[in-house]
Amino acid sequence: MWGDVAVELDPKETGKLVTSANKKEFVDTYVNYIFNQSVEVVFEEFRKGFFKVCDKNVVEFFQPEELRGVMVGKENFDWETLKQNTVYEGEYHAGHPNIVTFWEVFEELTEDQKKAFLLFLTGCDRVPILGMNQIRMRVQTLLNSSQQHFPEALTCHSLLQLPIYPSKETLQSRLIEAVGHNRGFKNE
């Protein structure tokens, strides 16, 4: 029984009971129904749609773990590369006190907080298939802001708009709160 649906252990033998001798057959039949038969119609529609977007011949070329990397990105985070590839705009530069403080705060974040920052910045918490060097973070001053404002991010451009903060503690608390609550995505 799955939900309101009764599934026969053996379609050729209606009403066949489960015994010690056939319990493996029962488990196999049950698992097959749950993971295959019960979702067959929905999965078939998904499969058709997927192959409309992704060429079947190309997809079949990949091993499952390779295809996952292509579709959703990788998990090997190289935060130093992110820092090295960052471009500063306006009054910001690598030696600006607010930028130096930003990187100090960033380095103190947990790995999960850094991933959350990546999501905040780019809209994705994974590394592109070609690596972290594909992310070109841009940092500029958030205009007309005060220390009360939170950092903002324009995810399509990997642009971090960072207010100038008077202390490391303020920058840290504003950044962590913005990243933790996705407060950075600019509403237009």
UniProtKB/TrEMBL annotation:
<dbReference type="GO" id="GO:0000209">
    <property type="term" value="P:protein polyubiquitination"/>
</dbReference>
<dbReference type="InterPro" id="IPR035983">
    <property type="entry name" value="Hect_E3_ubiquitin_ligase"/>
</dbReference>
<keyword id="KW-0833">Ubl conjugation pathway</keyword>
<dbReference type="GO" id="GO:0061630">
    <property type="term" value="F:ubiquitin protein ligase activity"/>
</dbReference>
<protein>
    <recommendedName>
        <fullName>HECT-type E3 ubiquitin transferase</fullName>
        <ecNumber>2.3.2.26</ecNumber>
    </recommendedName>
</protein>
<keyword id="KW-0808">Transferase</keyword>
<feature type="domain" description="HECT">
    <location>
        <begin position="1"/>
        <end position="188"/>
    </location>
</feature>
<feature type="active site" description="Glycyl thioester intermediate">
    <location>
        <position position="156"/>
    </location>
</feature>
<dbReference type="Pfam" id="PF00632">
    <property type="entry name" value="HECT"/>
</dbReference>
<dbReference type="InterPro" id="IPR000569">
    <property type="entry name" value="HECT_dom"/>
</dbReference>
<dbReference type="InterPro" id="IPR044611">
    <property type="entry name" value="E3A/B/C-like"/>
</dbReference>
